[in-house]
């Protein structure tokens, strides 16, 4: 399974530790990882995913502005011709929010999976293995 | 050209004019009138005086919300219920990016919906008058805490707004906080901030400056953190700053933390001119926290113990909700009181730890080697040296997101839990130092029966949030994949 | 006549018969059948084995409620959410007084109303079968914790009920826990309990016995606590107890606590026969707690730090709700996790505190002087010696409510926060030791510019609940009369 | 003001530290204190108060059984001919109760004042000074 993954931290967020750990774990698990690093714009995500024909786009956000930063994200991907599963993870709201509510918000915005900040790299890998096996190019889209 | 030299008066005025044009609120800044405002403040709000004359470590939380009224009641709570000695105002991330329009949108959204649309207080958008309302409303001195690479307008407005302490610096607010800002630019921008602080200082209004010691907050070797503090302190002093609080973030090993704080104080006093008053600030653990308030209280407790033994001038506290997100004001005050209780129970005890001197010696030697490298890289000019040393990796910070640093150095804990350097990359330290670190890490590798590898680093990054200090393999414990009792919510893959 | 000699088999049987007649549930006890039940338990429930073979300090909370189902779910919570290594069952106060009728009323009231009508689990009223249901329901070993001067029936029932550890002793469950019981009686009663434990032990079912080290929990000088532990250990060993866990309650001074735990371990091993396995238990601060959960977490954190450095075999944890009343199960589990986090972050660090050896030497010397006095008072017989030494005040415990002790000795903290003896009264220690304590306390009196007085003792009693270690005058802080942020309710005089 | 105070811990409760501190503080403030110590029965309270013609009876309870232990307490006092103000203080309920509720319970049982365990000796002294000045033998009874 050499699925291709685009990874980055969106917006002005500079929390790099989580994606560094994720990158290493995904690479070790055999994925082809394109890590865009921190403070990545929607356009940069779209461009990289399009260029590398990514199977999955993994967005990380820790600093609490994810909602603002992700407005229109899926439109940007579509415009660039990207058809990949999209995950988002980290601390997705400012403050002590109920995660279920947060998950619903990001689901409604179009993300296929939404992860909280207790997510281990192994959980991300398990999900990717499921979803990328499923999809293996444009078949059905997971709706979990 | 970039040089570690004082900005001439005329240039200061020119930049000041430019900067103040960046957002409408900049126009309200008037230096002379601001000096008068500061003079009108009572002694209890003179940040440098309060800090420098304290007879015990002072406690300060972090806190910032979008709206003024909310910020006032948040700080009142921390002052009254948390018994904070010093208060903070943490600035939102858009302001840190100089995206004042976005901050404005967030502020207006917050005002309309009451929701937390910003992760801090947009001081630039609020402007001078509203900053002063904040300063007037509280009893304790307030510091601006942010993470802004180009903080010139923020400084102009908040200094005029009555704040007398300002966190950050050209390295410590660039390397951990952003990707694309060049170090040369940030140094110039902070020369302006420091010069402005110097200008107030010359008029009798001491502005305390606090380089951000924890850097990326993630297993930063003390020698690296201290070298950065010394260099930033030097740059600030050149511009006329006379009250400098050098910072250090807890690594969790008692002996190493005590040694590091002593080294920081000692080298700070030695390296900086006598006309600079050097104080130290200790940050409670800045890395990933356990996803459980009870366990987080254990981490905070260890911060309090360390502070009680090392006696820094100031302690920045954490809250038990650190893992989850911006804490409620109650949790923030609770973190202060847990720390206070520990501090006050332990600080009168004479606690001398064996091995501090040796560790301190190693830290000092390594830090001085790094400072020397900076000076060599700049042919004696620290400003130039910083840019060059970072570009070449001779000076480096682990997990640095910034393109200005190599970010190739990697830390790992030794068998005793002290942070050592696992991958030096281009870090310019002597072979002797490398060997010492290598031996310590070999010892751990032997104990664990595994090779040194990135996995070890990753395990160490997670260790405290998993309930221990050293990321040993198969230690069981509370690993993220396990089902932690304090877990507020399972990850997606579990929930589905 | 009372003597430190093993109860003969026939006498044991006679007493056993009598005791079991005191309440109907006593009839169900059958020693042979009980041995079989114990043999059927898995290794993970063999208390002594689990404790003695652990490679790190094990954590155990206190917990007891009236109803069986409730007790099971309480312990399940502490096991699963608190990750307790060892479980407790704390007995209610009526049972401690052998008032089984009152306990029965309370139990029935609890069953009918669901309200907490008892402050613990009335094991005698529940009887053998229901005790076994409890033991069966949990995975970890469970200890009986109580405070009962005459615990013969409780022991007979709970041993038969499958418990393999039993707290208390003739001094430690008399002197701090009651007023009128004579020491001679309590010693006889505990000789029975210990002999019963010995009888099981001889059949291969080791019953762990744990003298209650903290005594009155209030500034007990370590030497006194340790002397009591040694003497109680000796009395138990005579009756055939082979697994002894000697206890010590935190005083809050790191060096003194570490020294005391080391002294306890060392003297325990020296003083007791080689066929006794001695382990140690450290109780987190047993005195008055702060009326604020955040501050209480600071106190618990210091307990965890101390445990990590001293490495006792077991730690009894406190909850952040200690001040207010019996804690909720969530708070109890939180106390466990805060302690665990601290312990696991610190215990792998090599922490050597200066001054431990000297303090340990002083503690050992004084404790041995007190043990010698006991032996002298009994002409070589410890049982007689205990009665006599307490009667004369040669051995004494501060704040002892019991008429069997003089309760005239008074403790106070020295300038470093170590607990010293302020008023020796008749305590039989050498002039040399008295002088050392006197000098330490003079030093403090000088620092504070006041004479030594009862006020100093009272200030020290309140100090930790007021947010510090030493009861200095005018220290401000969080005194009871102030308005503490965590205060759940004002006192009457404020409320009216 | 040489008002006379009977002090003790009721029931099987052995928590002695609080009353030791109270005794010392009350004596220092000039009260005549009769400290019955721990594990004092209702009858012992009544007898001592009657013998010394106490102005106030101070009951302490820490261990959580105060309600059971105090049933019929005021009847016992009356039978012995005691007419004194009565206070109770300490940890009056098992567990994490709301103090206002607890206060009501003990007020209803006849106690003139009910104190929580945050009470300082000074507060007790202030209350006694008020109440004993008021009463100065059998005048009106405080109803606060
Ligand atoms: C270290 C840290 C910092 C460092 C970051 C250094 C760096 N450049 O990386 C510094 C000190 C610079 C910093 C700055 C700030 N921080 Co910060 N920081 C933290 C902290 C303590 C740890 C984060 C971390 O590294 N964790 C360890 C890594 C391994 O875990 P992780 O990041 O959570 O990632 C894992 C999972 O979340 C998951 N994951 C993450 N992303 C994704 C994506 C996908 C698709 C998937 C599947 C999984 C996944 O997998 C990762 C690996 O296991 C957290 C609090 C905490 N968690 O304890 C706060 C925290 C994230 N920071 C916070 C804030 C507010 C800030 C600041 C805005 C303000 C400030 N306090 O100064 C600035 C932001 C600056 C900026 N522009 O981004 C808040 C966010 C608030 C919120 N969301 O409500 C937090 C929660 C602290 C708090 N309680 O207030 N921070
Ligand atoms: C020390 C202590 C002990 C020692 C007591 C030694 C002794 N003989 O005195 C030991 C270890 C023996 C002990 C035993 C028990 N204890 Co205990 N103990 C405590 C502890 C930690 C401190 C009490 C103390 O000394 N405080 C310091 C003094 C100065 O304060 P104070 O007693 O509160 O008194 C002040 C005020 O309350 C007030 N006040 C008190 N009475 C009155 C009366 C009046 C009229 C007024 C005006 C004011 C007033 O003025 C005093 C001076 O400022 C408390 C918890 C806490 N508070 O932190 C638990 C606590 C009181 N104990 C408790 C329990 C359950 C017990 C036991 C039943 C079970 C056990 N845990 O073993 C046994 C009871 C044995 C018995 N028969 O009584 C519970 C009570 C639960 C409840 N009410 O819901 C508590 C709250 C602990 C807990 N959270 O579970 N205990």
Descriptive account of the structure:
With 144 residues, chain A is of the alpha/beta class. In chain A, 41% of the residues lie in helices and 17% in strands. Chain A contains 6 helices and 5 strands; from the N terminus they run βαβαβααβαβα. Residues 135-144 of chain A have low confidence and may be disordered. Chain B starts with 8 loop residues before the first helix and ends with a helix. Chain B is 48% helix and 9% strand. Chain B is α/β, with parallel strands linked by helices and 496 residues long. Chain B is globular and about 65 Å long. At the B-C interface, α12 and α13 of B face α12 and α13 of C.
Q: What sort of overall outline of chain B do the alpha carbons produce when their principal axes are compared? A: globular
Strand order of the largest sheet of chain B: 1-8-7-6-5-4-3-2
Give the total of beta strands of chain B.
10
By DSSP (H or I, 4+ residues per run), the number of helices of chain A equals: 6
Find the count of extended strands of chain A (DSSP E, 2+ residues). Answer: 5
Integer average pLDDT of chain B: 94
Q: How is the main sheet of chain B built?
A: 8 strands, parallel
* Average residue-wise pLDDT of chain A: 90
The class by helix and strand makeup of chain B works out as alpha/beta
Element string of chain B (H = helix, E = strand): HHHEHEHHHEHEHEHEHEHEHHHEEHHH
- How much beta of chain A, percentage-wise? 15-25%
Class derived from helix and strand content of chain A: alpha/beta
What attributes characterize this protein structure?
heterotetramer, A: 144 residues, alpha/beta, 5-stranded parallel beta sheet, 6 helices, 41% helix, disordered C terminus, B: alpha/beta, 8-stranded parallel beta sheet, two-stranded antiparallel ribbon, 9% strand, binds cobalamin
């Amino acid at each position: 399974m050499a699925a291709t993954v685009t990874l980055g931290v969106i917006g002005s967020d500079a929390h790099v530790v989580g994606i560094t750990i994720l990158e290493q774990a995904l690479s070790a698990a055999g994925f082809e990882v394109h890590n865009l690093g921190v403070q990545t714009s929607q356009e940069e995500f779209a461009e990289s995913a399009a260029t590398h024909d990514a199977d999955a786009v993994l967005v990380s956000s820790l600093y609490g502005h994810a909602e603002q930063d992700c407005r229109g994200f899926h439109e940007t991907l579509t415009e660039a011709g990207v058809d990949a599963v999209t995950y988002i993870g980290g601390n997705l709201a400012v403050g002590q929010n109920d995660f279920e509510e947060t998950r619903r918000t990001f689901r409604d915005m179009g993300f296929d999976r939404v992860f909280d900040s207790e997510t281990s790299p192994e959980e991300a890998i398990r999900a990717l293995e499921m979803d990328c096996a499923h999809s293996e190019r444009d078949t059905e889209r997971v709706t979990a | 050209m970039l040089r570690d030299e004082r900005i001439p008066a005329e240039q200061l005025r020119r930049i000041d004019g430019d900067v103040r044009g960046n957002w409408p609120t900049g126009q309200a800044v008037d230096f002379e009138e601001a000096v008068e405002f500061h003079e009108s403040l009572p002694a209890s709000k003179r940040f440098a005086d309060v800090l420098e004359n304290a007879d015990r470590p002072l406690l300060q939380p972090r806190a910032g919300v979008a709206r003024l009224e909310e910020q006032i009641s948040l700080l009142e709570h921390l002052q009254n219920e948390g018994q904070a000695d010093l208060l903070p105002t943490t600035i939102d991330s858009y302001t840190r990016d100089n995206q004042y329009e976005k901050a404005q949108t967030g502020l207006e959204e917050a005002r309309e919906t009451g929701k937390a649309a910003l992760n801090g207080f947009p001081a630039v958008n609020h402007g001078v008058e509203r900053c002063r309302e904040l300063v007037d409303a509280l009893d304790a001195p307030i510091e601006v805490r942010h993470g802004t690479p180009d903080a010139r307008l923020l400084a102009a407005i908040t200094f005029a707004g009555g704040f007398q302490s300002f966190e950050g610096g050209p390295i410590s607010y660039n390397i951990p906080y952003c990707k694309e800002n060049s170090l040369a630019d940030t140094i110039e921008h902070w020369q302006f901030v420091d010069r402005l602080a110097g200008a107030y200082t010359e008029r009798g209004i001491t502005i305390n400056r606090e380089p951000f010691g924890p850097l990326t907050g993630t297993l930063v070797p003390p020698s690296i953190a201290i070298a950065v503090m010394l260099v930033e302190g030097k740059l600030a002093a050149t511009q006329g700053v006379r009250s400098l609080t050098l910072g250090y973030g807890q690594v969790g090993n008692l002996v190493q933390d005590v040694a590091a704080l002593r080294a920081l104080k000692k080298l700070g006093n030695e390296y900086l001119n006598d006309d600079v008053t050097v104080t130290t600030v200790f940050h409670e653990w800045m890395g990933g926290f356990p996803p459980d308030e009870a366990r987080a209280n254990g981490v905070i407790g260890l911060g309090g113990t360390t502070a009680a033994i090392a006696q820094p001038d100031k302690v920045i506290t954490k809250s038990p909700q650190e893992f989850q997100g911006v804490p409620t004001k109650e949790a923030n005050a609770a973190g202060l009181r847990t720390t206070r209780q520990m501090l006050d129970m332990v600080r009168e005890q004479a606690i001398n730890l064996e091995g501090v001197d040796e560790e301190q010696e190693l830290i000092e030697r390594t830090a001085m080697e790094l400072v020397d490298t900076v000076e060599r890289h700049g042919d004696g000019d620290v400003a130039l040296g910083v840019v060059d040393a970072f570009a070449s990796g001779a000076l480096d910070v682990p997990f640095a997101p910034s393109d200005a640093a190599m970010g190739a150095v990697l830390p790992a804990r030794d068998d005793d839990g002290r942070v050592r350097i696992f991958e030096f990359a281009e870090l310019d330290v002597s072979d002797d130092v490398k060997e010492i670190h290598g031996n310590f890490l070999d010892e751990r590798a032997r104990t664990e029966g595994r090779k040194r590898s990135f996995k070890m680093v990753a395990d160490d990054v997670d260790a405290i949030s998993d309930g221990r200090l050293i990321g040993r393999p198969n230690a069981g414990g509370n690993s993220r994949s396990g089902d932690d009792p304090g877990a507020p919510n399972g990850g997606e893959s579990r929930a589905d």
